Amino acid sequence: MLKIDAIHLREINLPLAYPFETSFGLTTGRRILLVELEGEGLSAWGECVAGEHPYFSDEMIDTAWIITETELAPRLLDAEVRSGGSCPDIFKQVRGHRMAKAALENAVWDMEAQIDNMPLAELLGGTRSVIPCGVSIGIQKTPEALMDKIAMELAAGYQRIKLKCKPGWDVTIFEAVRKRWPDITLSCDANSAYRMRDFDHIAGWDVFNLLMIEQPLWYDDFYFHAMLQKRLETRICLDESIRNRRDALAAIDMESCGIINIKVGRVGGFSEAIAVHNAAAERGIPVWCGGMLETGIGRAHNIALSSLSNFSLPGDVSASQRYWTEDIIEPEVTVSAAGEIVVPTSAGSGYVVRKDRIEALTVRRQTLRAQARVMA
Predict the structure, then answer these.
(1) How many CB atoms lie within 10 A of CB 347?
(2) N or C: more exposed end of the chain, with fewer CB within 10 A?
């Protein structure tokens, strides 16, 4: 049984090293909700990946804070927590709010790994000692700026280049990239920017030999993605549409996609992420780990998850310096010249959280305590 004595909520404000633009808009900095579990003489951390606005998902940092403070954290403090895998049952009365749930659940898994003196990756069932890394490149101000960015990332060793795209920033960009780099592993991510009227347009992308086309249509759709997939040789990858194992099974059975992106926050935590991974593996569908502009805390959790066997495609788990001038963990996440990250072998996440840095960045905080144990 894990005894959690206190849960600390912190909001930090952290500017991005470089602006990041998608079809949703331009991001220059992050408001981030961090949770710290205190108990068993240990400290374990989780990160909520909800954005500043409800654009990628219906969650945002302010709703996540409220639901964590008023519903999820009190339930966790009052529960008999046997393991990280207990959390879905503890939180089941609360519908949705998967990113808020994931922050707490992932911290519990981290605490469990520390208590058991084993790497988090091993506790999750990971088998990889290194993970292959790709990179996601946002929409740039000019095509020339994009070319410079791609050249820099390829020189850094990244094994897959993913281009954010939207109507007006797609075919001419793909043509220019393929002309300069005909053989690199290339994919694109539309973040739901296209509609049925664009089917013929998207079907023409087959000529670019893309690894995948990620979430071209509605964020909550399987049916029209299945229609589009029938028109394509290129595999569709679903991201926003996959919230849990049931969604993964439905998408696979409907032939809506040939690849699945697993974001641990999007599916509600490690337990559901493992379930999605296993469902896809059983049906021969490869998966990879997507990124949400995480700090090193969330990035460390992505590394551990990516060590599972069916994460066979390069994910978006890239180096800290791509996003932050100074991260909140040490050592910072680095990528080798071969485009790989070594999976830590020390207990827990394998990284040390820099509380001094977090304190300097904190703009809001709240602490909840286990009342029964405080009274005792």
Answers:
(1) 18
(2) C
